[in-house]
Amino acid sequence: MRLELVKRKEHSQMMALLSPLIAVGLTALAAAIIFSITSHNPLIGLYKFFIEPLTQQWSLEATIDKATPLILIGCGLAVCYLSNNWNIGAEGQFVIGALFGSILPVLFPEFENGATLPLMLIFGAVGGALWALIPALLKTRFNTNEILTSLMLVYVAGLMLDYLVRGPWRDPGGYNFPESRIFSDAATLPEVFGGTMSMSAPITVIVAIVLAVVLAKTLKGFEIRVMGESPRAGSFAGFSAKGLTLFSFALAGAFAGLAGTMEVSGSLNQLLPSISPGYGFTAIIVAFLGRLNPIGIIIAGFVLALSYIGGEGVQSAMGVSNEIASVIQGLLLFFVLACDTLILYRIRMVSRRVPAGEASHV
Amino acid sequence: MVQQDRSGKDTLLDARGLTKRFGDILANDRVDLIINKGEIHALLGENGAGKSTLVKMFYGSLEPDAGEIHWDGAKVNIGNPAAARELGIGMVFQHFSLFEALNVVENIALALPNPGNMTDLANRIETVSRDYGLPLNPTDIVADLPVGIRQRIEIVRCLLQEPRLIIMDEPTSVLTPQEADQLFLTLQRLAQEGCAVLYISHRLEEVQRICHHATILRHGQVVRECDPTKETPASLASMMVGADVASVSASEQKPEIGEIRLGLKNLSAKAATPFATALNNISMDLRAGEVVAVAGVAGNGQGELFDAISGEMRVSPEMVQIDGIPSGTRNITWRRRQGAAFVPEERLGHGAVPGMKLSQNIVLTRHSTGDKLVGAGFVSDAQAGLMEQRIKQTFDVRMSHDDPEARSLSGGNLQKFVVGRELDRKPGVLVVNQPTWGVDAGAAALIRQALIDLARSGSAVLVISQDLDEIFEIADRIAVISRGYLSVAEPAADMTRERVGLLMAGGAETQGEVA
Known about the structure:
CATH class of the largest domain in chain B: Alpha Beta
Number of helices of chain A: 14
Oligomer: heterodimer
Largest sheet of chain A: 2 strands, antiparallel
Number of domains of chain B: 3
Mean pLDDT of chain B: 86
CATH topology of chain A: ABC transporter involved in vitamin B12 uptake, BtuC
Mean pLDDT of chain A: 89
Number of strands of chain A: 2
Low-confidence stretches of chain A: 353-362
């Protein structure tokens, strides 16, 4: 007996919409099992993890705060993945974006006027794009595998940040703590809705909506989808594979860099040795859970942000290790990909004769 | 059908009624094949005739749906390649599976079930390879070796397992004539020692030279068996393409020949990969009003010729001229705007995106051809839908529901769509590779008629095809491509199948070299 995956002729539109929900359901089920195994009450665990963060204003705001970078990065990654460019290095692009965005407030703290913030955001986007273009150029020029190069550059970026905040960019009045000076008001994203949330959330939603229109309605969006599904047909259509690799990496890098700048400017207000709890990696899950569709990604980003807040919740309330958040994120990606596979393929059982000579070979 | 009685002699492998189906396609239909000991047996057929499917069943990488294989008189199930090697069946693939960073002996050791001591193995490799006239240095790194030597590694790897049947898939396609001669000596020596060789090749002259017996497949069925030494390359070619079908004379209407619309001038291009074909000095003029066909056995440069004309492969400016304008360095979109249109051989994945709806697939080739499909960067779904309806009606594309994904259409219907999408533009120059590949007779007739009608309305049509029936049905002039050389296009009325066959078997090459 052997299992075979058989391609389906056409794909169910309904299942394509349902599959993320099924994946979330399966993840909750798996999480419940994990809670039981570690002798915690699964129902309380699920409630604390998935529901409680939504019941209070502060935790809801914290969730949106975490969702924002995930969504922005996820949107950029979606463009990469749709066009078959495997950018795994958004985490590094996020960090470099934050560094570029911090050039003004850290090195030129007295430059304070209305242009400070817009310039910072532009610097951040450009920095992230430049960092992302490294693996893109290596791919188009030397045929290197972008999965490896983009991933490895994450660690380079992390070490650069670490070096800068411990060395040249350390706050001169900061008692030798490894952190930069606090950003001035002109370099801080204003808060919105009277709460603690910064401008980054509305900016991100606007970017996602614009991207959704570009992907669905324009020739560029068409090019991205064609190249992802069938590069040969794309080149027959007159699209350049190399050009699109550069474009999609630069766009994803710019989005991640923008997210990085908004994170340091809006939430942290300074550079620290570590500025991201893995947003760039979690955004990969966000992109796929959102079906590589910007509107879906807004929802998916929110779900994944819950896992951060919920992870902290179960840790403090039930004493579960907060590694549970990573485990649940991983399970979620696994279930999303598994559900997607079943949309494209169906499983067939094949009984198999025992072939001659197989027994004698190990 | 000429069926010689060859059973009972010294039968090594006896396949009876082998059948293999992939979805709707019957790749092998009740194939019977007998291979005797010490025989070099040619397996001939056009691309898609089912040769690869058949040998994969012998080598255990595919399982037959029906039929049986007898080996040395006993019925066997060959479940996987390891089982095939156990029986003594070895295979040399067309595309090698060698690790470039490793040396010769390491590569061979990886493929052997029990390689043993590396020094001993190196010695064995040296002895065996020298004995069979294929000398190898065991310590050479594969990355440094030319393609011909790499193939030797594959062959020696096979020989070390003392096979009784070696299957070779197009071995000479990557060899120089001298290397090929060397290989033939080795094969003859193997045959003398009693080893059988199943030899797949498109090069009919070499089949005639070294093979003792030939089986010819067409559409998955055995159509002929013969003794190739008693045939000519031309007669072998006509058996492959099926000359028994009544030939049709070129179209009745005399074409009104006009000015040159597509010009190829000394078109040359290096092979992009070891398995691609170089184009050598190809020249041809296509005039308004005529259909010119390029005949040839698959893999002789048709794909490369198509890519050079379409702009997917760039050449020097003067090499390709559209309406007199040098276009060799221009991209495919520019050439489309210039009035050219292209239909590639592969419908799914090249001519159309499998997972996209037909209306979106229209955007694929029509986005810049002035059809109001794209305005200010936005694609008009309404316009795409209108064009889809129009093409569907004009070319009788049948679908189960409105605007389906391209992959769900049958081959014939998708081909009508892909051809119709270009004809709908009334292009000045149309280049079609395999216009009716795997298409049923009704759809094929419709497509052929549409091609002729387009030419008669003042366009130039270039048809690249392996189907001689089709070529004689629609072409005004016929040229033959062989190993990247193109023969002079001659009026179809002056051409015979025999002459086309001869040109296919290498005549075009000699003509091209002289020119």
